[in-house]
Recover the amino acids of this structure.
């Protein structure tokens, strides 16, 4: 993973790096590897994640087809 530091702005580069690591799931994997996970717990977690992904995909598909209202946009001040 590579992040460019512009104008000696290390703080901004760190924020970008953290965001990239979060998106890649590095922090979640580090937390999972910090302690042993039983195989049965691992199967249950992976199954729950798969169900969550499937429901999210189905929800987005229904929103695209107009069967569900689109989520409200939150205006964030910058």
């Amino acid at each position: 993973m590579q992040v460019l530091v512009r104008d000696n702005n290390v703080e901004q580069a760190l924020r970008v790096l953290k965001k990239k690591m979060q998106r890649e799931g590095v922090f979640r994997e580090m937390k999972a590897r910090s302690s042993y996970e039983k195989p049965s717990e691992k199967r249950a977690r992976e199954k729950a994640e798969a169900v969550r992904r499937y429901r999210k995909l189905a929800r987005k598909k229904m929103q695209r087809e107009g069967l569900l209202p689109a989520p409200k946009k939150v205006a964030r001040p910058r």
